[in-house]
Amino acid sequence: MNGALSISGSNGVRLGRDHTQAAMSALTDLLSGRIEMSQFRERHEAIPKKQSLTMLVNDKCNLSCRHCYLQTDGLSRTQLNVGEWTTIIDSAAEHGVSLFVLAGKEPLTGSVGPCLVEHLGDLRRQTDIRTGMITNGTLLDRHQTRIENANFSYIDISMEGDHVDNDAIRGEGAFAAARPNVEWATRLLDERLFITMTLQKENIVRFPSAIEAFGQLGVKSVGASSYIPLPYTDPALALSQGQLQSFFHGLDALGQLTLDHDMCVQIDVGTLAPDTLVAFMESDWFDMDSMEVDLSGFLYAGYRFCNGLSLHFRFVPWPLSISSSCRISLDGHLLAVEDSLQPRLYGRHTLCNVRDFDFDFSTSYQHALTNLRLRAIDATYEKEVLPRLRKAYRASNSRSTHRRQAITA
Ligand code: SF4
């Protein structure tokens, strides 16, 4: 798995008009420098939002991708078992969590993930929760009946492009192993099956041809987020600011693709990858006035090309913290989104451990909200990222026109 946020987490439903205005006004005030982060947090928290929970159910994977941020030994001392996970899930559903995402490393290795696929399916039949899974796709054929019965709201399969680009990152044979499962999952889920790409030096220049290759597998939905280098991942994959600028500039090429069917491409721009965020705000795709807000409080801008391809940007230029999305590690640490990319520091960054609260999500979450780590995340953002965003925002306001015409939902 890659990235800290499931790419297809939006339920496609937008916030009501008053809440949208409140969210936009808080953000423009923050980016304009009229308010500081603590005031933004106060105003943003007052807006009712849907909450999601991502669960890291194991530390095993059958691939060894060069960019994998979970590529580290000894993620856990004592892993949560199926009964403990189901207690967490059930209590989180009662707490009001509306989206549950299974992740791993690879959630379909071992026995815990497959059991939770069944449990989430049962819960989904009884409640209106949404469910998702992030997988490398190579093991889906072993669990087809379970997955069919679970009726996932969506599944993200991570791939890096056509077989050449994919295997250069994920290892020889990874594309061939995933391909029949992608085709099966597309038939099962249609547009609810997402291919998720990690943009990096080796695949970013062929992004349009990757979309075309996925389309030829029957895929209708693709998500992309940027590679975030870590001390133990491959530094040669890092993107330069110039490459990111060229990437956004070159997205018009998506409109020239020959497609057999309509496709939707969503690009994630958030504070975990500040360089990508800045490059997006400097591009002429960025226009705050044309954005919409979904029920998670995330901003979206959408554009449609004549060839049937819709291009969406998910714009989240503030630290997510745990307000709309949080994560529980395989040994029970409740973590902010910002800390999920550093598994070696989970023990230090933990907001609390659900074991200490009898695996009850609600009491764990209430305790986590008081942890000073959340203030530290906001303070780091205010010092290191926000000044760049404010500069990019000022520059965007001084551009007299935006040549893009956004679509609205
Ligand atoms: S498939 Fe995902 S979890 Fe497995 S090695 Fe690759 S990036 Fe890591």
UniProtKB/TrEMBL annotation:
Question: Any idea what this protein is called?
Answer: Radical SAM core domain-containing protein
**Highest taxon of the lineage:** Bacteria
Q: Which SUPFAM superfamilies match?
A: Radical SAM enzymes (SSF102114)
Q: Which cofactor does it need?
A: [4Fe-4S] cluster
According to the entry, every stretch annotated as the Radical SAM core domain falls at 45-268
Q: Coiled-coil segments, which residues?
A: none
Record PROSITE patterns: RADICAL_SAM
A GO term for molecular function? catalytic activity
- Is Iron included in the keywords of this UniProt record? yes
Q: Is Nucleotidyltransferase there in the keyword field?
A: no
